[in-house]
Amino acid sequence: MANTSEIRNGLCITYNNDVFTVVEFQHVKPGKGAAFVRTKMKSLTTGKVLDNTFPAGHKIDIVRVERRKFQYLYNDDMGYHFMDEENYEQTTIDGKMIENSQLLKEGSKAEILFNTADDSPLTIEMPQYIELKVTYTEPGLKGDTATNAMKPATVETGAEIRVPLFINEGDIVKIDTRSCSYMERVKQ
Hints:
Layout lengths: L1 E2 L8 E4 L2 E11 L7 E8 L5 E7 L3 E4 L2 E12 L2 E6 L5 E4 L15 E7 L4 E6 L3 E9 L12 E6 L4 E5 L7 E5 L4 E6 L2
Antiparallel strand pairs: 1-6, 2-3, 2-6, 3-4, 4-5, 7-8, 7-10, 8-9, 10-11, 12-13, 12-15, 13-14, 15-16
């Protein structure tokens, strides 16, 4: 058992029979009244963000987590299959645990957080940016760049994203995996 003085960004705790990670925290000591800790926590099972205030000295249950590097192999009706890069063991993860799973490309790297108590996977963290090849998009009209116009494009994983008009088939684009949005064209 720990108390609120040990709350830090990235700390995993048990709250309301769920595992949360602390996204933001602030220790507050008002001039009048007792101190408290204001937190913003994200559920590792549902992804729901929760604002909560703990009184100073409140007991919390810290969950020990372990990060392991994995390589994405493939997906089927059982789920998404990953291989541990150290011991080559395979793990199957449910698709609901992966945010923007349509951006996963065979061979891409990801980090999986495991609960060390029961060795169960909690969440998957994809790299912040991923580079994918555009397999289909409508040609852009020459000279139609006065506005910040976007068009749909399909990338090699089958995901559809919005790209600027100057992007053509065969271009490689950098995509933000958190928002599933175009960042820039990659020079080849």
